[in-house]
Here is the input.
Amino acid sequence: MKVNGRTVLITGASYGIGAALARATARAGGQVLLLARTSEALEQVAAEVRAGGGQAHVYPVDLADPAAVERVVQLVEAEVGAPDILINNAGIGRWLFLEETDPAEAQAMMAVPYFAAFYVTRAFLPAMLRRRSGQIVNINSPASLVAWPGATAYTAARWALRGFTEALHADLRGTGLRVTAVIPGKVSSTYFTHNPGTEARAPWIAKLLGTITPEQAAAEILRGIERDQRQIVLPGRYRLLYMVHRIWPGLVRWLAAATGVRRPA
Here is the structure.
């Protein structure tokens, strides 16, 4: 789906990939709707978009709260209408072994990204189905395909989002709506700043595959959206890893485990 002239809603739009997507989408001619909890950060991103001549609307919301999501969706539909492209980008979570993970933190990791994507998509879906057009984009993680040590609850939440994405493919067949999964590798965003200690737990095989900037990720995601790709893997080096995983999954699982962090003594 072409971005130019479209309304594009982005969750988790205050930092990292979400903010870069907002700027790139506006440059491509899209109107952006920005959702996240932190209104000050959202306003900063919106100001950058407007300074470049783009259109941006800010909607602060706790995406883990279904009632709050329903209220903000009603406001968006009243002010702008249902988005043409819905990008579920919001996600949180530290990489921890199971015994290190507090139950409340595990629930928060499941709430965002999985339940946030569920709530937002469910709320907008009736209007998108009536229109019989639109694209739903779920931004996930390599953990949705391959597990590594020391990221138990994070991995479970990402597998939940992967299952949700696959189920949407089945549900929306023949409706005119498209669903896209995005699997970025390591991105030099504020994620690692907001989740201290996480970067040190990345398997070294992932480090060998390199790091991209949020701006590089945003450019590849928009290119994939415009090509109606079912899955966008970035950077390109990761595609080889996933091809090997399809053919020989045991090898990739072994590499992820063997090159990952060791359990603390």
